[in-house]
Amino acid sequence: MLTALIGLGIFGTILLLMYACTTAYRMMAPRGTDRAIERVQSWSSPIETAPFDIVRKDSLSEIPWFNDLLKKARKLQAFRVLHQRADCRTPLGVFVLAAVLLALSGLLLALSMKQTFLLALLFAALLGAIPYVYLLWKKNQRLAMFERQLPEALELVSRALRAGHAFSVGLKMVGEEAADPIGKEFRRVFDEVSMGVALPQALENMTHRVDSVDLKFFITSVLVQRETGGNLAEIIDSLAGLIRQRFELQLRVKALSAEGRMSAVVLLGLPIVVGLALFKMNPDYMGLLFTDPAGQNLTTVGSIMMILGALVMKRMVTIKV
């Protein structure tokens, strides 16, 4: 049974590796000639009377059938949202296949080392989560940059309103003058409004792409002002000042929790560093943890407890402002 499982895993790994190589070649290959041929064919083809579609169509993979499969998979909806918020140019299909390939590789590697099946599953889960962790890191980096740029963008919109311009003109000014990612998002909102999308819907679409509490406050204040009236410029100025005060408080909390975060890093890294040092000095002594059944069980339990401890310490040192 184990031999058949290993053979099936090797076969699946080879197929996924071949697909990954093909996808990488398609992404890196120059397409200037192909695009020129397509452009000439579009000029020479008769004009069709089909309605023009202004809805943006996101491609999750360059392979049509795999793209359709990813769009129909409801369990990957959270992965799709994370990929969109990370604003990653690499298609989502590459990350999905990379996660499957890494998980199979970790499972086969652990089984080839004669580890327990539970430890092999844990190792496969850790390797398979690498693409997800990478997207989560990119999303957090982009969100932090967006929130740092938000007060200045709001002040720019407020100055545009005080100068007598419309709210959409203020969005356009932010899109043209501000750097990415906030410039890109405001520019996209202005483009959607120019194409006929209602302003509330365009602003709501931006909240789906950027998971920021401050941005939701800004959009809520704009929508409420459109219904009840009031001085929108003063509302935006007060909101920008409030966001700056929250940044100051967050930095103060970060400084006060630095000791707890450093303790968490030391407690998590100490067993790994000590284990590697002992393995280098006496491989036979540490090898029992991976060859003996009792040692394998202890390694599995210890790994699970370290992961749970890391999650608990993360919750303890994370203070929402």
Number of strands: 0
Report how far apart the termini are. Answer: 53 Å
Any guess at the CATH architecture of the largest domain?
Answer: Up-down Bundle
Uncertain regions spanning at least 5 consecutive residues: 29-40, 45-55
User: What's the mean pLDDT score?
Assistant: 79
What is the alpha-carbon Rg in Å? 26 Å
> How is the CATH topology of the largest domain named?
Receptor-associated Protein
Description:
The protein has helices spanning 2-28, 32-44, 64-72, 77-86, 92-112, 117-128, 130-162, 167-177, 182-194, 199-209, 213-228, 232-256, 258-281, 283-291, 293-317. The chain is mostly helical and 321 residues long. It folds into three domains: 2-24 and 60-128, no CATH class; 145-245, Receptor-associated Protein; 258-317, no CATH class. Mean pLDDT is 79; it is low at 29-40 and 45-55.
Short summary:
It contains 15 helices and no strands.
Question: Features of this protein?
Answer:
single chain; about 325 residues; mainly alpha; Receptor-associated Protein; 3 domains; 15 helices; about 80% helix; about 0% strand; elongated
Which helices and strands, and how do they pair?
Blueprint: H1 2-28, H2 32-44, H3 64-72, H4 77-86, H5 92-112, H6 117-128, H7 130-162, H8 167-177, H9 182-194, H10 199-209, H11 213-228, H12 232-256, H13 258-281, H14 283-291, H15 293-317
Helix pairs in contact: 1-5, 4-7, 5-6, 7-8, 7-12, 8-9, 9-10, 10-11, 11-12, 13-14, 13-15, 14-15
